[in-house]
Amino acid sequence: MKPMDTATPQSTALSYETDLAWLDRLLEHEILRLRAHYELSLDELRGLYISDRQVDELLRRRSMEEGTNADPAARLSAEASRLRTLRSTQSPLAQLATRFGLSEFETDLLLLAIAPELSLKYETLYAYLNNDITRKYLTVDLALRLLDGASDSSRRAALSSCGRLFVLGFLDWLEPSEPRSGLARGFVASPPTVHYLLDLPLGDARLPDAVRIMPPLSVDLELFSASARAAVHEFSSQHPLRPGLVSCTGETPIEQFAAARLYAASHGQGVLTLPLSVLAKVTDGWSTLRTRVHLLALLADATVVVYDELGGYPREPAQHAQLTQQIRELASSGLTVFWAVPHDAPWAEGIADLSYLELRLPQASADDRASTWVSALRGLGVSPEESVIDDLAERFLLPSSRIAAAAESASRCLANTSETLRDSLWRAARRHSTQSLGQLASRVVKPHRYEHLVLPDTTLRQVREIAAAIAQRERVYGRWRMAERTGRGNGLMILFAGASGTGKTMTASVIANDLGIDLYRIDLATVVSKYIGETEKNLDRIFAAARHSNGILFFDEADALLGKRSEVKDAHDRYANIEIAYLLQKMEEHEGVVILATNLAKNLDQAFSRRMHYVIDFPKPDAALRERLWGGMFPPAAPLGEDVDFRFLAEQFETSGGEIQMIALDAAFLASAGRQVIGMSEIVQAMARHQQKQGSPAAVSEFRQYHGLVQRR
Q1: Cβ neighbours around 95 below 10 Å, total
Q2: What is the pLDDT of residues 524-551, one digit of tens each?
Q3: How far apart are CA 588 and CA 582, in angstroms?
Q4: What is the pLDDT of residues 699-709, one digit of tens each?
Q5: 551 and 591 Cβ atoms separated by less than 8 Å
Q6: Which end of the chain is more exposed for a tag (fewer CB within 10 A), N or C?
Q7: What value does the mean pLDDT of the chain take?
Q8: How confident is the model at residue 487 (pLDDT cuts 50, 70, 90)?
Q9: Which one-letter DSSP state was computed for residue 478?
Q10: Nearest in space to 231 (alpha carbons), one of 252, 250, 204
C-alpha cells in the first residue's frame, strides 16, 4: 500500500491541545523527580547533547516563574489532574477508545505514542528522559514512569507482547539491534493508528499496493446485472452485516467484487481489498500480514474482500488448504470477510465446521445482457436496432464487464472501418468471448459452410436442428424458463457417432461458423492421464476456462472417456469409472455446448446416451454421396483433367469423405510435380497408394480399365 501524506491538519492538532498540555505536565513532573534525585544534573552531557535549558524551554516551565513558592511537584500533579478532566471526548483518540473499549491506561499509552507525530519536541523530551539521544521514542520503562505504572502488574502486562494494543496492532515494537531488557524495549504507534488518530487517509505502507481501502460503494453499478443487484439487495435485507464469513459465487471476479461493495455499502461500510495473489505469496509472514489487515479493516470499519483478481484461483490441494486456513483465521478474528469463489471451486470443504453465509449471484439473463449492451453503447453514443441487441444478448453469454469492453472495441472499429454496426458488434462480442484453454484445447479454424457438407438428408436435417437449438437455447432455457423444469444446466450435450472420416469434425466446424462462435477441439492425449486424479484435474481446468468462452467444446475421438464402465476388479478400474462419472458431472454442469465424437457407438456407456440432448449417426457415404464428395473436393482453381471419372471412383471404392480428401490432395501434389493437370492417372495412382497403406494391393478387379495407370509412374 502506498504511503499517505503525513502532514497533520491544523484542526487535528488543536483537538489534542489539552491532551498534550496534560502530557507536558507529566513530563515536567518526571523531570523534576529525576533532578531531585540527582539522576539528571544541570550540567551533564546527555547523549550529544540535550541541555536542561532546552528542555525547560520546550516545556515552558511555570514552576520557574518569579514569585511562585508552591511545591513544583504538587502543583504539576494538581495541574495534570485538572487537565485530565478537560481532555476532549470528541478527539479521534477518545472516539477510538470508546469504540474499542480501551482502558484509561491504554488510551494514555496511545497518546504518548502519537505525541511525536504531533510535535517533534516530544522526540527530544523522550530522548532526554531515556538518557540516550538515539532513543527518541517511548520505552516500556518511560511509559510506566510517566503513567505511574511501575508497581502495577496489570499495566506492566499491557506493555508486553500479549497486551491488547500490541495484539491488535495499535502499537508496534521497535526491535533493537541487540537484546535489551523488557523495560528498555521501544515502541511506536503503528502507521494505520497514526493515520486514524491524526484524521489522515487510512493506509499502511508496509502492505502491498493491492491491499487498499475503498470507501462505501462509489462503483459503477450500471455494468452490474440487474438480477445480481436484486440478489445482493435481498441478501442484505435478510442478513445484516456481522463479523464472520460470507461466501459469494458468481460469473466473474469483477461481478463478485461489485457484489461485495454493494453488500458492504448497504450497511455503511467500505471494503478492504485482499487479492488471492497477495495471500498466495505469504508463508512465514502470514501472522504479521493478518494483524495489519485486521487493524486496518477495524479502523476503516471495512469488510475484507478476498477475491481472485488474476483468474488464478488455487486448485491444487496444498494451495487450497493454505487459502482455506487463512480465510478461517480472518473470519474468526472479529472481521466481516467476503470470500469470492468460483462456482466449481471446492471452497466449502475446508469451512464445513464454520458458521457462514452464502450469496449466490444468478447468471445474467438475456434481458440483463440486453440492458447492459444498451447502457454501454448509449454511453458511447451508439444506438443499434433492438433486434441486433437481442441477438447479441441471446448468442453471447457475456458478463457485464466483457460486454462493456466489447462495446468499446466495436465503437473504435466503427470509426476506422466501413463495417456495419451489427458486424462490428458481433465481431467484438466474439473476440471478447474467447478464452485461452491452454494446451488442453485448440481453436479449430475452418472455412466450411453447409454447402460443403455431403451427408444423407436425414443427418443434414438433424445438423440444422442442432444449430437452431444452440442459437435458441437462451430463449428456451432463460426466457421460457424451461431450465426450471428440466433441473439441469443451460447447456447442450451432443453426440456425433460414426467411423473416422465421415465428417464429424467438419460438421462441428460448420455449426460453429454458421452461429458465429468458436470451436475448441480437446486434445484427449493431454487430458487422459495414467496418474490417478490427473484426468479429473485436466477436465476441471477445461470446463473452468470454457465457462465464458461462448464456444463449442469438441471432444474428438472421445472413446477413451466414453467407454462402458466396467466391473471393479482393481484400483485402475475404480478410477477409470470415476473419470467417466466426473466427465458426466462436468458436462451436466457446463452452461455451454459440448459435442463428443466417437468412432465406436456400440461401446458407449448408456449413462452418456441417456444424458445426450442429440445423437447423430454419421454413416459411411453410399456411391451417390461419394460421387458428390469427389466432385466437390477440387475447387475451381484446381486444373482438373477432362478424363476424370468421378462416378467410377465412387462406385468402385468405398472410401469415406476423409479418405477422399487425402487421396485428392495426394493427386494434386502428383499433378503439380508432373504435367500440371489433375487427371485420372494422378487420382488412380493416389488411390493405389491409399490402398497400399491400408494393406490392400491395387487389384485389377477394382481398378479395371484404369489398372494400367497404376504403374505409369
Answers
A1: 14
A2: 767 777 766 777 778 877 887 777 677 8
A3: 10
A4: 777 888 888 88
A5: no
A6: C
A7: 83
A8: low
A9: I
A10: 250
As a whole number of angstroms, the distance between CA 108 and CA 55 comes to 22
Helix or strand holding residue 274 (H, E): strand 270-275
- Specify whether the CB–CB gap between 349 and 378 falls below 8 A: no
In the three-class reduction of DSSP (H, G, I as helix; E, B as strand; rest coil), residue 281 is classed as helix
The beta strands (E) that lie in 87-155 are given as 138-139
CA distance 572 to 628: 47
Are the C-beta atoms of residues 382 and 407 closer than 8 Å to each other?
A: yes
- In tens, the pLDDT along 609-639 reads 778 899 999 999 999 999 999 999 999 999 9
Kindly write down the DSSP assignment for every residue of 405-473, as one continuous string. Answer: HHHHHHHHHHHHS---HHHHHHHHHHHHH----GGGEEEE-----GGG----HHHHHHHHHHHHHHHHH
Q: How far apart are CA 148 and CA 566, in angstroms?
A: 81
Here the cell at position 450 is 453447409
Distance of alpha carbon 691 from the chain centroid: 54
Residue 72: Cβ within 10 Å count: 16
390: enclosing H helix or E strand = helix 386-395
Beta-bridge partners for 598: 497
Average pLDDT over residues 353-365: 87
- Report the first-to-last Cα separation within the chain, whole angstroms: 77
Using the predicted structure, report yes or no on whether residue 402 has a pLDDT greater than 60: yes
Residues contacting 486, CB < 8 A, separation 6+: none
pLDDT of 99-114, one tens digit each?
Answer: 999 999 999 999 999 9
Q: List helix spans (H) across 171-315.
A: 191-197, 226-238, 253-265, 276-281, 286-300
Residue 548 · residue 398 · CB < 8 Å: yes
Q: Per the structure block, which three cell numbers stand in for 476?
A: 428456451
Q: Is the CB of residue 610 less than 8 Å from the CB of residue 493?
A: no
Mean pLDDT, residues 294-311 taken together: 89
User: Rounded CA gap, 8 and 11, in Å?
Assistant: 8
Distance set, CA 630 to CA 577, 621, 638, 676, 705 (Å): 43, 11, 13, 19, 19
What is the b/e burial string over 469-495, where b = at least 16 CB atoms within 10 angstroms of the residue's CB? ebbebbeebbeeeeeeeeeeebbbbbb
Strand 171-174 relative to strand 552-555: parallel, antiparallel, unpaired? unpaired
Position of cell 485448440? 442
Among 280, 276, 270, 271, residue whose Cα is nearest residue 253 = 276
Task: Report the C-alpha gap between 393 and 398 in whole angstroms.
Answer: 8
- What is the distance between the alpha carbons of residues 311 and 341, in angstroms, rounded to a whole number? 11
Give 505's contacts (C-beta < 8 A, 6+ positions apart). 444, 521, 554, 556, 597
H-run or E-run covering 484? helix 483-486
> pLDDT, tens digit, for every residue of 164-218?
999 999 999 997 766 678 888 999 999 999 999 998 888 888 888 889 998 887 6
Cα–Cα distance for residue pair 406/376, rounded to 1 Å: 9
- Please tell me the distance from the alpha carbon of residue 633 to that of residue 649, in angstroms, as a whole number: 13
Q: Are strands 614-618 and 552-555 parallel, antiparallel or unpaired?
A: unpaired
Query: Which of 116-125, 412-421, 478-487 has the highest average model confidence (pLDDT)?
Result: 116-125
| Residue (of 461, 395, 457) closest to 426 by Cα position | 395
Region of 128 (left: φ > 0; alpha: ψ -120 to 50; beta: rest) is alpha
What is the average pLDDT across 429-450?
78
Residue 295's nearest CA partner among 393, 433, 172, 380 is 172
pTM higher than 0.90 for the full model?
no
- Gap between the Cα atoms of 178 and 361, Å rounded: 55
Q: How far apart are CA 51 and CA 42, in angstroms?
A: 8
